[in-house]
Amino acid sequence: MNNQVPELQQLTQQYLLYLEKTKRMSIHTVTAYQFDLSQFIKFLDGEAISEPKQIKSGIIRSFMANLLEENLTPRSVHRKISSIRGWFKFMRKQGILTSDPMAKVLLPKMPKTLVKDIPATDLMNLFNRFPWNEEEHGERDRLLLLLFYTTGMRLSELINLKVADIDFYRGSLKVLGKRNKERLIPIHPETSDILKQYLTNRSTEVTHSRNQLANNVHTTTPNYLFQRNNGEALYPIFVYRLVNKYLKLFSHASKTSPHVLRHSFATHMLNNGANLLAIKDILGHANLSATQVYTKNSFEKLKKIHQLHPRE
User: Fold this and answer.
1) What span, in angstroms and rounded, lies between the C-alpha atoms of 93 and 218?
2) CATH code assigned at 38
3) What residue numbers bound the domain in which 263 lies?
4) Are residues 78 and 131 in the same domain?
5) pLDDT digits (tens, 9 = 90+) for 1-25
6) C-alpha to C-alpha distance for 259 and 247, rounded to whole angstroms
7) 117: closest CA among 261, 242, 239, 258?
8) Crossing angle for the helix pair 258-271 and 120-129, nearest 10 degrees?
9) d(CA 84, CA 151)
10) Does the pTM of the predicted model rise above 0.70?
11) Does 69 share its domain with 135?
């Protein structure tokens, strides 16, 4: 990128700082916004646009068309435009823009896709029939997958889970969700027993952690529940690959990721009569609409069952 758009670059940095410090978004989210905006500014550079007031709706439509020509999915285009929309909103708040360039822009239609869960029988087979004791870190891996499935935690929430966040007396876990919002998630009694056994087996680390807590000693390295040899949290890509490896052994699902286990948790809870508002709170959704997608999945299953009716 040349020096034609320094003002836009400066405004981008101000916006990213606002997201990080004021909106308290995670570093991963801010990095994603940064990538999207850099791509947009590079496009503006090619169109000889160097200041915000020159950005019109036609330019945004051209940018979207360019993304689609590069075979980006409508979902990916929506995500990038969402980053740009937030940037425009920030500039309007700062008085840099007086109108919204997005006002006359229509986004590409999103394909209607239902959340795909992994059947409960497949997951039960994985947890109960796989020879976990033969794996080098089998006890850790089983607990990791079990927590995903029985709590509905996000990947970022699980890898940042600390021993001090576990309350066996109350039967709960404290997690730090999106925008640094804390919430408590109940632990299933069976999962709690497995968790206790896991912590007992890493007794040296747990004792060290308890001594730190008892003596109120500050440490720059938190005692993560799942950690590397150096005591740091596991890498997200490591956990993703680990989950994918095990799920593929017992499932033919097209997607086998930590997020699919979160979907499976919510769908199976709903299928078994759980209250939608309760599921919303456990998942940490800000709006009920984000949780209602699981009702569509359950309804599609009911429709298939209804087709078995012996009608004439």
Assistant:
1) 40
2) 1.10.150
3) 120-306
4) no
5) 444 467 899 999 999 999 999 988 8
6) 12
7) 261
8) 120
9) 33
10) no
11) no
